[in-house]
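Bit of a strange request maybe. I'm writing a small parser for structure token strings and I need a real example to test against, not something I typed by hand. Could someone generate the tokens for this chain?
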Amino acid sequence: MEAFELIFLGTGTSQGVPVIGCNCEVCTSSDPHDQRLRTSALLKIAGKTIVFDVGPDFRQQMLREKICQIDAVLFTHEHNDHVIGLDDIRPYNFMKRGGIDVFGTKRVLNEVKNRFPYVFDPNPYPGAPSVNTHSINEKDSFSINGLGIAIQPLPVSHGGWPVLGFRIGPVVYITDAKTIDDKVIEAASGCEVLVLNALRKKEHYSHLSLSDAIRISEKVKPKHTFLTHISHTMGLYEDVSKELPDGVYLAYDGLRVKNTGKTVLQ
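Reply from user aminoacidic:
Good idea to test on real output. This should exercise your parser:
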């Protein structure tokens, strides 16, 4: 099995936790596990560093984790909390002396171009962010230059909005899903680590609830499941963690999951 390190850059919803102006027990908790930046993750595998989404907290996340290199960004979808930090890839452009490879569906890339027209200007100003765009679709696997591992898109529905999850070797990353069909569950089966969104305990129209996510995990049967995209209404990290079945964990910002070839270490 391919060795990897998965870093949870952010595990919160589009508002983050704490939520501005909220005085609930989670938003006022002193436990750092209850403080969540917008959802994103970073995977180190086969000598490459891959980022899932670049939200509004991207700069803060990269500084916290002391990340000095990224090779590619995979966009799950175009909602602001997943793309709006694109401008902050500039330091990586300077270090690489070139553009960063970004991957997304044609729809997503077009929307990113609409939000960041200066990035795609034929005559960009000096110091503008630089990206190399790669259009992908839900049916075909793809690879990153030099990775040597096929990346399999996993199409899911975010309350009717198309979103892509990804399988990269032993790791499956799915966020902002409400509906996951049997084909995707089959494609994800047998993974070492499943990352899955779980917004809250109460049902939601466009996100998996905690019980929804646990049911999906039971179908996929990974060795370990980590829940992300968690809202302040889920409850305190310490309390909810005690309620979870074996092998299922609430992820938290800064959590690192390593596979040495035999064992996942947190």
